[in-house]
Amino acid sequence: MKPMEGIPRCSFGHFPTPLHCFGDDRTLRVKRDDLAGFAWAGNKTRPLEFLMGEAREQGASCVVSGGMSTSNFIAALALAACREGLRCHLLVPGPVEATTSIRMARLAGARVEEVSTPREHLDEAIAIRAAELSAEGIATYPIPRGGAAATGALGFAVAAHELQQQLISLGSSIADPVTVVIPVGSGASIAGLLAGTALVGAPFRIVGVSVSRAPDDVEPMVTRLAGMVLSRLGADASSLESCDVSVLDGRRPLEREDMRRVATALACRGLLVDDHYGLPAWLVAEELASEQEPVVVWHTGGMAGVPHVLAEVQR
Ligand SMILES: Cc1ncc(COP(=O)(O)O)c(C=O)c1O
User: Once rounded to an integer, what is the mean pLDDT over residues 83-112?
Assistant: First the structure.
């Protein structure tokens, strides 16, 4: 993908991630970012390659970001920073819990600072802490929650091209419509995917499943971030107008029976999902695949949440 040439990037994952059929069902395919190959970073491997590439290019010796105690992103960032020899400072709204993510971040040597800032204002707190560290002479690179910056979203712009190539190699025509279902947290992944879809002109109908915020709050942010990605690549943001993107509400509590049914069906095909991101997206993908075809569901990882699903379905 030409426009990415010259953009600094670290290499953490194994790409392309596989695109598997869901059993014998050719209408439902799974994009296996759970197999991205960098610890349990899953989909977050993609933005981290560009964010850490830029941090290194700018000569940073420290990265600052933040998230809730359960954030997969903060754990993945801590590991990436450790691998690149950078310090990692994380702001976590209190009380900080001893989650797998926090344990992984600490294992990687990150400094975990408990803050009273609510999640919605964490990005401002990250910018302030980064400015303070820079004023102390520590070259600091701030990263918004979830990696939701244009640089981070570049990772999923590449992924749109990756998926398009895989579908073509499976015999799809470049014009065949495909519905792509992806869980949405910070919005970095779907925004990048949208920008990449516009860039390569793929006929993807993108359906986001928002797990933490109302769709009406997420949609404008996603379009704005996608526009920033295209500008960054010197492409025309008006190409977004022809893209088909929608965000559904994935915040409703899951019925234990749905959880059990989907988790069992997936486990029998060698797939494990969490209940925060994975299961809500699967439920939507399942429904869409029964109505229209074909559907690709993006398996974004979330391995730290799998034990919770196992405990819930066996309660
Ligand atoms: C497993 C998993 N899936 C999906 C997402 C959502 O990605 P984004 O924050 O880019 O919307 C996250 C975010 O942390 C995640 O950890």
Answer: 98
